[in-house]
Amino acid sequence: MPSQESTRMKLNYRVILLLLATIFGLIFSLPSFTQSSEGKKVTLGLDLQGGLHMLLGVKTEEAVDSQLKSIASGLKHFGEHNDILLDGISVQDRTVTFELLDNDDTTVIDEYLKSVEGTIVHASEGKYVLSVTPESVEKLKVQAIDQAIETIRNRLDQFGLAEPTVAKQGVDKILVELPGIKTPQEEQRARELISRAAKLELMAVDEDRAMRVMELDDAEAASFGDKILEDALQPKMKHLVNDIPILDGTMLTDAQVGYDQNNRPVINFSLNSQGAQIFGDFTGKSVGKRLAIVLDGKVYSAPVINERIGGGSGQISGNYTVEEANDLAIALRSGALLAPIYMMEKRSVGPSLGADSIKASLVAFATGAALVVFFMITYYGYSGVVATTVMVVNIILIIAFMALFGATLTLPGMAGIVLTVGMAVDANVIINERIRELLREGASVRRAIEGGYDNALSTLVDANLTTLIAAVALYVYGTGPIKGFAVTLAVGILVSMFTAIMGSHGIFQMLMNRIEKSGNMNRWFGIRLGHKG
Amino acid sequence: MEFFRARKAFNFMGWVKPVFAFSLVISLVAIYLIVTKGFVYGIDFAGGTVVQVKYEAPVRIDEIRKHLSTTPFASAGIQEFGSSSEIVLRLQNTTADVTKDTAAQVSDALSGTGKFEIRRVDMVGPKVGKELQTQGTIALLFSVIGILIYVAFRFEWRFAVASIIALVHDVLITAGMVSLFNVEFDLTVLAALLTILGFSINDTIVIFDRIRETIHDTKESGKYQMSVIINESVTNTLSRTILTITTVFFVVLTLFLFGGEIIHGFSFAMLIGVIFGAYSSIFVASPFLIWFGYDVAQAKAAQAEKRRQHAEKEKMRAQFEQGVV
């Protein structure tokens, strides 16, 4: 009967650290296992929970064009407001050109042009050419991307999907991730919402030539400073409008769904004070003419102006369903996209596939882990149990750290965890082999264990750090799911070094008296020492 | 349980020539395959569209192909995916239009072929594919360079170069197999290649570390022979190598068998890489140390010098602290 004293387990700082780590791991991994709403948890990647991943590009060139149009509009309004005669204002080849008819106005117009930022003005004999400076072009492009991100984010926030991600990727790409998408219909709606330019323009109908619109082609229309636009409701109908809009959606302050007298959904919009001023000026001067309400290049209505319209509000009616009207109002409210976006990469995963993937990796995980445990215990006996114990702590800790970092668990990430199971025991294999060696050389249990850890240390550090280099390279240059894989791999390596070097060492130290007392090295380390000595 | 009870070192370096010839041949075959046959690049790198469709009942590929021949998807590649009721369509074209609904179009085209559900639509534009390709190559290069520097710093340049040769050998052979078996080369396969880098270097370092230690522990100058040292070191670490490879191999095998079709390429590459990673540590990395003229006597002298310098420093410090200097 062994005495109480000799087999008593002694706590040591390593075991206490392991215990603390385990408690820490359990606390922070629990929300992930139960997927409770409380606390930080590992988010499942779109490939596991289903959803829509998009990488969008921005056609930044068009932001520059639209800026030029905007300058032209401002110029036109300035001329009309101050009774300055400006002829042939047009936007072409990335410049705004016009002619000043009365030389007396030169100082006034020059003063005004100076106030337009980021432009270069060439003027000779009353003919003006405005172009945008290269710095300003760059600035506009950057702005277009930032504005697109902001706009898409606003729209998605109002759309009411769970946890949308909108982020800049690289210099000129936008990453959009929508985990909440469950059906193709929802996906389609979301894609239409974010890609919609939502560019509202109020344009004057060219009443002098409107009758001839069906005979004109685009080039002819352009020669009159006009353009031909399709009607939104009757595609065969065409409208001839002035190319330079009276005002555009940048002056819009609100857009809400309302109902017209027939109880059909319409969108009521209101303009800011500057917009209201321009709108008032124009309508006051154009009584009897028509005003086209143009959205994304299509004419929604072109009512005749009966009187000056103050107050700055208007209405878009377009045979909408309530849902369509609602999405359009969101798009208008969150502002127009300065430049159109295009799809660079799209990955959409249905929820059932994600669930299948989770199931498949769990099966692989369970089978792999069972095999490893079986090997370790058969080969090493009790020290295999120790290795298994720290492997479990290892997995709990990986989950906990990933939850703390807000990392995403992807399908390759799951594979990373499964691999970690294989790798984590490697550290213990190296240590156990060292212990066995020393035991074979006839060392005492205590010396074998302490020496085993000492001898294995430099190998473990070198071997794991080199693997870590590969993991870091994967993280830095990988994208999406691969990044997720790199994170699990790297966290796995670091955690396994701790659990193997600290954790299992502590357990052995705690059990030291028992191992010494038992003397059965086959049971503890899986080796037969034959005849001692 | 023990694999090796005998304490006699195996003569690994005695088998080096034939084994190395084997390595050389399959490396050359791998290069030949990569250069002439190349890879079946997945859409991650080549760009294109993949649509995964799951039917309620098993379907026949040729019937679906026939059905699609009158639709815009006539040129689509169709393959079974994991089971006979699941297929993937591969299209080379992509669309930059954000609102275009490829899923709906495929749905229309497939209508009448049975009850199905579209589970996945992946589209990668040509520009993104190019970028991913460059980034992947950079990732591989940087890990190799990083490892080279680390090993050179912790050991010396001959160890570093030898381990990199072994790494390249493993990655080449794995890539060759990927090419040979027409495994689709996508991002997960790239991840596998990088992981193999990590695994392979791990094995090599364990052995190199042991070699360094054995050199240090060898006292009789009659044993100052690199091949003897290597044989002893490899033998001493052999149980570990076999056990670790077995566990990792079985884990990867379960991934290969049960992990699902999407990471099939990954687990396939890992299976090959894990085996060759262990093999190359013994039969490729170690002999290069000999061929690079790594000399035990010199190494011992260097180690002794290092220890002497260290001792000197300690002595100086002790004297300094005692106020002698």
Q: What would you say this structure looks like, in words?
A:
The complex is a heterodimer of chains A (533) and B (325). The mean pLDDT of chain A is 84. The relative contact order of chain A is 0.13. In chain A, the strands form five sheets. A six-stranded mixed beta sheet of chain A has the order 11-10-16-15-9-12, sandwiched between helices. A four-stranded antiparallel beta sheet of chain A has the order 7-8-2-18. The two termini of chain A are 26 Å apart. Chain A has helices spanning 13-34, 46-49, 61-81, 106-115, 134-159, 184-195, 218-223, 273-285, 322-333, 351-380, 382-404, 411-440, 445-477, 480-518, 521-525; strands at 43-44, 51-58, 86-92, 95-100, 119-124, 127-132, 165-169, 173-178, 200-204, 226-231, 238-242, 247-248, 252-259, 265-271, 291-295, 298-301, 313-317, 341-349, 408-409. Chain A folds into three domains: 13-50 and 350-525, Multidrug efflux transporter AcrB transmembrane domain (Multidrug efflux transporter AcrB transmembrane fold, Up-down Bundle); 62-135, Gyrase A, domain 2 (2-Layer Sandwich), CATH 3.30.1360; 144-347, Gyrase A, domain 2. In chain A, α3 (61-81) crosses α5 and α12 packs antiparallel against α13 (445-477). By secondary structure, chain A is α+β, with helices and mostly antiparallel strands. In chain A, a hairpin with a 2-residue loop joins β3 (86-92) and β4. In chain B, α6 (157-180) packs antiparallel against α7 and α6 (157-180) packs antiparallel against α9 (264-291). Chain B is elongated. Chain B has two domains: 12-40 and 128-294, Up-down Bundle (Multidrug efflux transporter AcrB transmembrane fold), CATH 1.20.1640.10; 48-124, Alpha-Beta Plaits. The model of chain B has no long low-confidence stretch (mean pLDDT 87). Chain B contains ten helices and six strands; from the N terminus they run αβαβαββαβααβαααα. Classes of the chains: A alpha+beta (533), B alpha+beta (325). Chains A and B meet through β2, α6, β18, α10 and α12 of A and α4, β5, α5, α7 and α8 of B.
